[in-house]
ABC transporter ATP-binding protein (Nakamurella aerolata), 285 residues
Amino acid sequence: MSQPDPNQPTTSGDPLLEISNMAVAYGRIEALHGISLTVNPGELVTLIGANGAGKTTTMRAISGILPLSSGRVIFDGRDITRMKAHQRVAAGIIQAPEGRGVFPGMTVQENLDMGHYARKFDSKADYDEALERVYSLFPRLLERRKQAGGTMSGGEQQMLAIGRALMARPRLLLLDEPSMGLAPMIIQQIFRIISEINQQGTTILLVEQNAQQALSRSDRAYIMETGEVIKTGVGKELLVDPSVKEAYLGVGADSGSDTSRAAAPAAGAVAGGAAGAAERPDLRK
Ligand SMILES: Nc1ncnc2c1ncn2[C@@H]1O[C@H](COP(=O)(O)OP(=O)(O)OP(=O)(O)O)[C@@H](O)[C@H]1O
Ligand SMILES: [Mg+2]
């Protein structure tokens, strides 16, 4: 379903991404305490969790921006644990970063071109195909292709950031909070487009605080809390899971007067009593 890559063996039935016991630290402070997750070819998988849970850290480690202190990352059957960030881009792991990262002085078209040149392709046809896909997903970007990226609205810049990532023809697209800071109508639109990108065959790992939207559109999801995965399951099933509803979907306050109840008494090991653990998830951005 994704474009062939000469460096990659074609595996079938195996996960596209497989993370085992991944620990990541900032200096002496461990942010991820050994998480495991998989993303299968064609899936849309979401990471949900409160502020500081380790979602962005997970994405950066997958991109190769942060080194692992232990554990393994397998991509398409190949151990990439020690692979450099640019090599991972070449292999097709493409992240649209948190906070968009649009080049403000460049036009929309130039921003998209930068995305394409991040990865080597054989022919102009690859470029044309990628550009056509982006402009058909985001007609707005076509209209504004000569406008400077920095003068676009927040929603348009988010579209540009996703479009730029798509220009690299990702085999795995990493999206970190694409809905952040956007108006509800734009959020809806961004989520619809993410679903469409996935339905076109692109495998996606998404980080979102908008749990309702994300879970309803995801094949599977992982719930993270203070550097651990505390729960995983099918997106739509998690949507109706009582502990998930209470902690992440803004319901449960009506089930009693005790609104001070700790978040997510979810299955599995909840991260130990570190300072952050008592924090109520702030997911209602
Ligand atoms: N550059 C850094 N240096 C030191 N600690 C960091 C750094 N970035 C993140 N952390 C810490 O690592 C932990 C995980 O942070 P991370 O940014 O991955 O969380 P997150 O789930 O993405 O949160 P948010 O929802 O706020 O984006 C937090 O305790 C955070 O304070
Ligand atoms: Mg984050």
